[in-house]
Structure formats: structure tokens, C-alpha cells
Amino acid sequence: MATRTSPPLLLLLAALSVLFCHAAAVHNPAGGGARVAAAAGPGDDTTKVYVVFTERQPGTAELPEAEAGAAIAAFHHDMIGGVLDADSSSAPDRVVYHYSRSLRGFAARLTDDEKNRLASPLLPLLSREDTVAAFIGFIQPTDINIDTVPRHCRGPPKVVYRPQTTRSWDFLGVPRHNDPTRLKFENDVIIGMVDSGIWLDSESFSDEGHPPPPAKWKGVCSKNFTSCNNKIIGARSYYGGNTTLSVLDREGHGTHTASTATGRAVAGASLGGLAGGTARGAVPGARLAVYKDILAAFDDAIADGVDVISASLGSVFAQEYAADTMAVGAFHAVRRGVVVSVSAGNSGPMLGSVSNVAPWTISVAATLTDRRIISELVLGNGRRVVGSAITVFPNLGKPSLLVDPGGCDHEQLDGKRYKGAVLLCGMAIDISSEAISLTGADGAIVYMFGDEDKDTAFSFAVPAVIVMEEFDHIIDYNNSTSHPMVTVKKSVTVKNAAAPSVVEFSSRGPNRATYGVLKPDIGAPGVDILAAWTPEATLSGSEVDSRRTKYNIISGTSMACPHVTGAAAYVKSVHPGWSHAAVQSVLMTTATPMGSGEPEAELAYGAGQVDPVRARYPGLVYDAAEDDYVGFLCAQGYNSSQLAAMTGRRASAAACSAEARASAVGDLNYPSIAVPVLNYGVGFAAEFPRTVTNVGPADSVYRATVTTVPGIDVAVTPDELAFSASTKKLSFKVRVSGTLLPANGTLGASASVVWSDGRHHVGSPIYVFHHKHVM
Ligand SMILES: *[C@@H]1O[C@H](CO)[C@@H](O)[C@H](O)[C@H]1NC(C)=O
Ligand SMILES: *[C@@H]1O[C@H](CO)[C@@H](O)[C@H](O)[C@H]1NC(C)=O
Ligand SMILES: *[C@@H]1O[C@H](CO)[C@@H](O)[C@H](O)[C@H]1NC(C)=O
Ligand SMILES: *[C@@H]1O[C@H](CO)[C@@H](O)[C@H](O)[C@H]1NC(C)=O
Ligand SMILES: *[C@@H]1O[C@H](CO)[C@@H](O)[C@H](O)[C@H]1NC(C)=O
Ligand SMILES: *[C@@H]1O[C@H](CO)[C@@H](O)[C@H](O)[C@H]1NC(C)=O
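^ thats the input. predicted complex w/ 2-acetamido-2-deoxy-beta-D-glucopyranose below
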């Protein structure tokens, strides 16, 4: 299978990039956590990769690294050796990866029978529980996608779009600076990027002026990546357990997201002159550690000492938490104080499409900034047509003959020459950049049905412009003359007065794993983002594209996620000891409410647009720790074996208390409130206990202000909180009641609670919605 020679996720992205139209879902057959290389089973058809968690593992603290690794590997091999089908391959052939640093367990290819034998309580290894480790459960890793490209067949494969990358930090009001020695505290923040690798030589990753890594850093550079510096302080790749492979970014995605979060300011960056300006990240002083895999990356990143993990990856739909590799990895990160920022997914605007939904992660929606990129055509009759594409090629701007080849797929264009012509292609489906390129055509005009992608521009391997309803004008013109001419112009940036608003492709709530937890959490710029690129990939990602670029413009919740990662690092640089929940809380409670007309309202943008500068001075924090998340899972109805797989604790030690079991998911001390109701027009009432910790001046008095809509009552008790030097934490209850009425152009009703002492404003969105409405 295709995954034998190259990391499947990356390989599939590349394979798709020849087409205009592709499913955005990049399926990773090896599963999120593990690359399958050496692993051989009784046949790839019958085995699946499972991550097997163990309660303990042999103590190896005294052993040198190589011996420790061998001891743990031997232990894992021993564990599955007894359950493998007769006359099949040996245990070492089946194990894909050993997790031993922050997680305990391994990933292995197993048949259903083998998996069931391993899960059987009759397994002899349980009797050795006191000497070694007990099997505690497993998950089948989720299929993982890179969240760059808007979904389905609407976009080109590789999203390359281009607007203002760096413009996005200006838009968010983050002050520009490029002097890491001036902001020394930033130097202690380490961001772990779980992505497609990195292009080290980008100016965005210069380590000029950076001191050596902070003392807490325990990571390494992979053996084949000797050129780490004081900016990129770690780099690991894992393929089938092979850690000598390159972390070189062949896709561009990892380089792009890393530079968005923490790139140095580089003046004069642009994509072929488009969207020019200074490219920069939020925290240019912060350090980068790069991990090219999922669960293995969490295992290492946590142990290496990163402060924030950024993962612009996700499954296609929300998974139940214990079956979601990302959720499990993030759980282990968060319990160690690491902040985890993830992308919401690119399957919007469908309701219920948000995919990274664990309450211990920050799920980021993609918003539009005040700058957009458009593409323009001028017809021979003088009519201008605005299209959506990033068109940056030499020799644009001259008239070409418009030719209708009857279709733009391989079959129709095979062997034809259209030099000097712009092809009038039909629907975006079945159009091949490669075939168009082979004809020698000057460009192509493609029709896109629907306007879901009207706000997003993509790059193509050939000068191609996507046209929506105005396609009719082009056809009329084509039929009106025997020599139709068209001029494809270079893209330009235009002002987007509607900003910030959530882009159509950004996945919407509600959270299908738990309707009572609002997701996504927050919005951040994710459309037309200019950031660093790898010369290993072409501008459009297609092999027939010959253009290379140092900076590229792409779109996706993948691009929004590193903005929140950067904002989290910005907060961590001033509050290094804060928990994941505290950082998540301050980002959400200081976000700018949006409400700019999306019918999905809070299900599109959560708390609103991230505001990194305000987030540093939040006043109050909704904190939570591991036990709170375990309590939440108990309220969700998790049984002991599911809880064991999530927490890495033995099932008998992971039982829920009766109190936890009787609690509600809405009791989690979350900075937002979701109220799913069963019926329109029927009265409801729900109560949400919350506790805030004062992180501002000691003697502060906060008062609650409620906003709501007719029919929905929100009561806060008490509505005044007086903090002092000895009273840092205070609790209150929010009671939401009333009757939800249908329609009004929205799915539900928006309300909010804002606590204020006059200087700080700590806002929580409340969203009441009819959950049956979501299919
Ligand atoms: C890792 O991959 C490299 C390059 O393909 C190969 O030379 C090496 O033997 C592999 N190591 C292991 C442990 O599989
Ligand atoms: C090591 O990296 C170089 C480029 O940095 C690459 O060409 C080579 O294939 C890599 N080796 C392995 C074993 O991956
Ligand atoms: C464009 O014009 C040509 C020549 O008149 C015609 O054959 C073709 O069908 C037209 N294309 C469309 C899409 O109408
Ligand atoms: C354009 O001409 C083609 C073929 O002559 C015809 O099939 C098509 O319907 C015409 N389109 C319009 C919009 O007149
Ligand atoms: C826990 O729930 C899972 C999923 O529903 C089920 O497969 C498993 O058997 C349950 N375990 C116990 C101990 O009830
Ligand atoms: C319905 O819409 C109107 C006008 O936008 C608004 O004033 C009212 O509060 C809305 N009602 C609900 C229940 O959302």
C-alpha cells in the first residue's frame, strides 16, 4: 500500500494536488498516531492499527537511553507476543511505535481476533500485573486530515490562497517587534508544532539574537536534521518508529503554520508582489519544536517541555473522545500544563461539522480579515468579471483567445494544443491542472456552483480563475462573437468591510460528542494568510507548477489555529505557570464578540475573534484541572474502561464517583455555556455552576451584566463577587430558562454574562439551540 514508502498523510496530499477538485479529506490509513512502515501483518486487509495503553512499563530511569528503549520494546513485544495469530509475523514486525515518555503504550497492527484476545481479562499477563504493567485499553486512531483546504470538491487541492499574512497580526492589534532580547520572557516559551515538518532556512526562523534554549528544554533534533538552531530547538520525525527520517517540510503546511505562530518579522514578504508587507508571528522570540506525527508527537512534546502544542489536524467529524487520537494526546498534554490549540475543521457551514471538540483543547474557527484577494478577467467587450483565485504568473494581462475545448479533464485535453488560448472549462469537478498545463494554454476559466467558497482564493498550477454566477456573462459573450477574447489579470487585494466574520468553510457546532459544550471555542484569521513556505513544494502544490516561493498564501482553519497558538504563547510569556484551562479561559473571555450575521452565531465563532493583547490582562479566570475533565467524562457516561484508555490509569483506579456520575456535562467549569433544548416552544431551565479565580488586583469587586433576547432569561447568583487577598476563588450559578422559539433567521438564541470590575471585562457566551435541528 501507498503508505510503505512515505508518510501517508503527506503522500496523499501530494497525490491530490494535481487535480482542481478533490475531497478535502486527506485520509491517513495508518491512523493518526502511527506511521506504518515496517509493520507487516497477516495481510494489510485484516489488520488495523491500534494504540494500546499500558498502566505501567518497566522502570528504566537507571538505564542508558538505548537500553531503556530496548527494555520497553521487549516489554511491548512480550505483551502482544502471546496473542498473535499462529504462523503470522512476529511481535516486533507488528509494533509500529513505542510510546514511553509522556504516554505509556504502543501502536501495533492487529487483527480483530488478536485485539479481542489482548482485551480478554483471561490473558495471563494480567497475573503479572504487579511486576510489569497491565493492559488498560486501546483506541483505534482517528483518520487525520490536514485542515488546510476547504472541504469537498469545491476547492483546489491545495489551498493556496493568498492575502495578508502578516496583515493578520496587525489586524488583531498585536504590536510588532523583532527584538527577542528586548522581550526576554518570550525566549522561554516553546511552541510544539505537530505538522508536516519545517523548512529551516526560511528567514522567518532565523535565530539571530536568540540565546541558547531554556534550561527546561529536554528535546532533541532528529539525527538527520543536524541544523537546529536557537530558534528551531527541536525536530522529530517518526515513520514506522524510524526516527532518523527527515523533518524537512515537503508540503509547506508546517512551515506556514510555524511562521504564523512565531516567525521573525521579515520585511518585504509577498507572494509575487501580492499581499506584500512584513511577515511575522505573534511571538518572534518564542522557540519552535517541530513534530512530524500525531500521538508520538504528543508523547515527545510533553516530555520535551513545550508550553503550547499547535495541531492543525483533525478527523472529518467529531469523534467520541476516547476514540480520538488528538483528544487522547491532548488530554495527556493538558494534565501536564501544556496548552493545546487545534483547528475546528473545514467542513462548514454544515451544522455539527466541527471535528476537534474535546473541552481540554481550544478549537479554532477561521475568520476573514479586512483584506481579501480577488482575481479579475476582462472580456473582449470590456466587461470585467471578478473571480476567486490567486493568480500570480508572469505574462498575465495580455488578451488571449477564449476557446471551449468541451471539457478540461485528461481525456478531453489529451494530445491537444491550445497555445495562446484561455480555456473555457465547465464545472470545477474533473478538471486537471496537469492536462491544462500540457496543452500549453494561457489559462482556464472554471465554473464553481454555489458561493460557499466565494470568500476564499486558491492557487492553481496554471493561470485559472474560479467564477461563480458571472460565468453566465462569459458564456453569453462566448456565443456573441466568433473571436471571443479574454484577459486574465494578476490578482489584487481588496478591502473586506465585513471583517471579522466566519468564513463559510469553517466547521460549525454543535459539538456532536457533547451538545452541552460549545464548540468551536474561538475564531482567528484563517483566510488568505501569507506566511513562510518551503521550496520543496511548488506554489500551488501541484507537480506541474514550476513556481517556487518563500512566502505563500493559503487558507483553512489550519491557518487560524496557529494564530491562537501564537496568542496562547503570548499569554504564556507573561504568565508561564498558567494551566491550559486558564489560558483557554483568558483567550475566550477577552475575545471580541462577533455576531455579524452568521445564522449559526456562536456555533460558528464561539466566544468571538481572539484578542491577544487583551488576553494578557483578563481579571478573572475559569480554571480546570485533570480531575475536572475526568468528572466531565463521568458525567458524559464514560465507563471505567473508556476512562482508563483516556487517562492511562488502570480501570479499577479510574472508576467514577457517584457524585461525578450524577453531575451534568454543563457543570464543567468552562468559559462558555451551551444549552441544547429538546423542543421549540416548550419551557426549559438549566443551571450552570461556575468558579472564577481572581488573577487581577486582590481587592476587586466584580458585577455581572447579562444580555439576552426575548423569551430567554439568564439569572446570575450571586451577581456580585468581592475578592480579597485571602479570597481568590468565588463561585456562582448561571440559570438559563425560558422558551426557545423557532426561526428568526437563526438556529438558536444568543445571550451572555460579562463580569466586570470597571476595568476588566470577562465575557462568556451563552447559546441556546434546538439540538434536533442538527439532523
Ligand atoms: C530508517 O530509514 C532509513 C532511510 O530509509 C533507513 O536507512 C534505516 O535503516 C531505517 N531505520 C530503521 C530502524 O528502520
Ligand atoms: C536526510 O535529509 C536529507 C535532506 O535534508 C534527505 O535528502 C535525506 O533523504 C534524508 N535521509 C533520510 C534517511 O531520510
Ligand atoms: C462557446 O462558443 C463556441 C463557439 O461558438 C461554442 O461551440 C461553445 O459551445 C460555446 N461554449 C459554451 C459553454 O456555450
Ligand atoms: C452557446 O452556444 C452553444 C452552442 O452553439 C449552445 O449550446 C449554448 O446553449 C449557447 N449558450 C447560450 C447561453 O446561449
Ligand atoms: C465501556 O463502554 C464501551 C463502549 O460502549 C464498551 O465497549 C465496553 O465494553 C464498556 N466496558 C465496560 C467495562 O462496561
Ligand atoms: C429576533 O430578531 C430580532 C431582530 O433581529 C431581535 O430583536 C430579537 O431579539 C430576536 N429574537 C430571538 C429570540 O433571537
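The chain is about 20% helix and 25% strand.
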